[in-house]
From TrEMBL:
<dbReference type="InterPro" id="IPR029058">
    <property type="entry name" value="AB_hydrolase_fold"/>
</dbReference>
<feature type="domain" description="Alpha/beta hydrolase fold-3">
    <location>
        <begin position="109"/>
        <end position="316"/>
    </location>
</feature>
<dbReference type="InterPro" id="IPR013094">
    <property type="entry name" value="AB_hydrolase_3"/>
</dbReference>
<feature type="active site">
    <location>
        <position position="187"/>
    </location>
</feature>
<comment type="similarity">
    <text>Belongs to the 'GDXG' lipolytic enzyme family.</text>
</comment>
<dbReference type="GO" id="GO:0016787">
    <property type="term" value="F:hydrolase activity"/>
</dbReference>
<protein>
    <submittedName>
        <fullName>Acetyl esterase</fullName>
    </submittedName>
</protein>
<keyword id="KW-0378">Hydrolase</keyword>
<dbReference type="InterPro" id="IPR050300">
    <property type="entry name" value="GDXG_lipolytic_enzyme"/>
</dbReference>
<dbReference type="InterPro" id="IPR002168">
    <property type="entry name" value="Lipase_GDXG_HIS_AS"/>
</dbReference>
<dbReference type="Pfam" id="PF07859">
    <property type="entry name" value="Abhydrolase_3"/>
</dbReference>
<dbReference type="InterPro" id="IPR033140">
    <property type="entry name" value="Lipase_GDXG_put_SER_AS"/>
</dbReference>
Amino acid sequence: MKTALLIILVLLLTGLAVLALLINRWRNSPHGRLSLAAAIIGKLADWQAASGDKSPQAMRASRDKSIGFFIARPAGVHAVRDLDIPGPGVALPVRIYTPQASLAALPIIIYFHGGGWVLGNLHSHDNLCRTLAAKTSAIVVSVDYRLAPENPFPAALDDAVAALHWVAAHAPTFNGDSTRIALAGDSAGGNLAAALSLQAREQQGPAIAAQALLYPAVDLSNLDRPSILQFAQGLFLTRERMDWFIDQYVPDQAMRSSPLVSPLLAGNHQHLPPALIITAGLDPLRDEGEAYAAALEQAGVATRLTRIEGVIHGFASMDRWFPEASQATDLIAGFLREQFSKVAAQSGKN
């Protein structure tokens, strides 16, 4: 019996040693020494991409099963409510997070999840939305917009427009303040938030107090920027996957230069909401996000840019693995609280 236990122990220790050697090898990259989280998640993403059914339906099912692997314990909020609001011809599911009981109306963040316009839903970014609600003391309305390829551009943006108009018109029904509405999103959701800001400017409302963009995709016409080529493989989001996502969302290549698809390419960035843009140091989309910040600043838009080094695309919704996720949500919360306070001061609200 003792001999058998000893053999099992030796095999276990040997297996752990081999695993440690493998992980150590994964951490060595052309971009320097990766964090443990970046190395493991990058490798798992590569394995997933190389095996199994690559259809959107299979990818969605796989992502839904793995949510618990990425997120930490959910943040506590006062109330969470799911409902369907009128969309462009279809019902549009949203989830409303109320951070606390309040006699006064609370500011509102409309959140658009990432996932390459193909993946993601209300559940995939539930913890991120809870965290933002708790840290900002704002109501978060998460939007379950239609996904590609079943619903290519402009379906997701049309849903975003519908959500903004509904929130502005119905804010009092959930104790929200329609004069203090911000947009936020990550990756593809950052793209929608930026495009919606442009759309709202052209339509002269509803008013948007601020936009917070996490590693946004803002130029779908160009996959040859230096960061895309530098981080083309092995770091969760690859150039090949980004190309595939774009094909699903905007199959018509001529449309990819539209400002509502690629907000960076808009001819005029003036009079857009104050912006916070957070990029990830090891992200293929890093350069276009930073170029968008420069374009906004050049156009006179109050803009803040923060690059968080050593992290990969999507890190903010992987808070179990990346402590930097808390840094990102702290930055967003501080920025939005400041912008909400400015609007309140201008309107004479306390």
